[in-house]
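Posting here for the record, re: S-adenosyl-L-homocysteine.
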Amino acid sequence: MKILQDLNLEELKSLVISLGEKPFRAGQIFRALSSGRKISEITDISNDLRAVLLKTYVDEPVKIIKTLISKDGTEKYLFRLFDGNIVEGVFMKNKYGNTECLSTLVGCRMGCKFCASTIGGLVRNLTAGEMYATVCAVNKLGGGNLSKRAVTNVVLMGSGEPFDNYDEVVKFLRLVSCKDGLNISPRNISLSTCGLVPEMLKFSEENLPVNLTVSLHNPFDNKRKELMPIANAYKISEILSACDNYFNKTGRRFIFEYTLVKGVNDTVDCIKELIKLLKGRPCHVNVIRLNEVKENGLKSVDDKNAYRFVAELTKGGLSATVRRLNGADIDGACGQLRRSHIEGESV
Ligand code: SAH
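Prediction output follows.
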C-alpha cells in the first residue's frame, strides 16, 4: 500500500487526471488530508473515487495511539505507522504559538551517546507524507483546521537525523509550507542536525529558509567524537563554514544546541573555546539540560550551573539561553517514550 499524503498538489493532479477526474479534485483531496481527514472521510469526492483511492492508498497512515499530558501542558504522542512501527512527537504551547516537535526516522543510526532514539539503531526512514500526516493529525486533535491552525510552528528535533533522510525531509518541508495546505512558513520551522556537512551545504540551495540548528555539544573535535560518532566524519571548522554559508545564502541566523553533560562538556575550557569559535558569528547558543536516559548513565548539570554556563557565554559576547524544560515528567527526551512503549510491549 502507498501513502496518499506523500503526493504534493501537482502529483495529486496527475493522479486524479489519470483516474478520469477533473483537476480541481486534487485540491479537495489535498485540503482534506491537510485537515487531518482519512481518505474514507473525504466526502466531497465521489464514493467511486474514494473506493479507487482506498485500493492503493492507506486510509490512515498515521494514528495517534497514546497521548500523555505533562504538568507543564506539554503533550506527547505515540503515532502508529501503517506497518506497525511507532514514532513519537511532542506538542508544546508557547506564547508565540504552538510547536510540534516531530520525528524524521524510526530510530536513528547516528549513535550520539546521550540520546535514547539511537539505542536500537535505525529501523527505517519516514516518508514525507508520514511526517506531514503527524502534523495534520496533531493540528486536528488540537482543534485546528486550515484557516485557524492549532500547530503554528514545527521543529524537526524528535527522533532521527533529518539530513540522514534528506529527500523525504525536503519534500515534507515543501508539503507543510504549501499555501493550499497547513501553510506553515519556513520561518516557523526549525531543523536540527548533528552536523552532516554535505547535506547542510546542499540544503542551503533549496530555497527553504528554515531555522538551521546544529547539535554541537562540545567545541573540541576530539572530545566531540566521544559524544557524537559523526564528529569522526566532519570537523567543527567544516560545520562552522557550512553554517556561515547557510547564513550568506538565506540570511537566517543559525543556532547551536549544547546539551550539558555533567563533568563532560561543562568545563571552563569548553566555555572559553565556545566563545573563541562563535564570537562574531550570527548565531545563538541554546543550552539544554540533559534529559537523563537510564541506558547510558550520563548525568545532567543542575539548574544553577546551567544558568552559570550561559552567563559566562553571554559575558564572553555570545547570545545564549537555557532551553525551557518541556515534559520532563512524560519521557520528554527524544526516543524515550517510544522505547518505554516497546519495552512495555515485550514484557
Ligand atoms: N538528529 C538531530 C535532531 C535530533 S534531537 C540532531 O542531532 O540535532 C534534537 C536535540 O536534542 C539534539 O541537539 C540532540 O543532541 C538533543 N538530545 C538528544 N537526546 C537528548 C537528551 N537525552 N537530553 C537532552 N538533549 C538531547
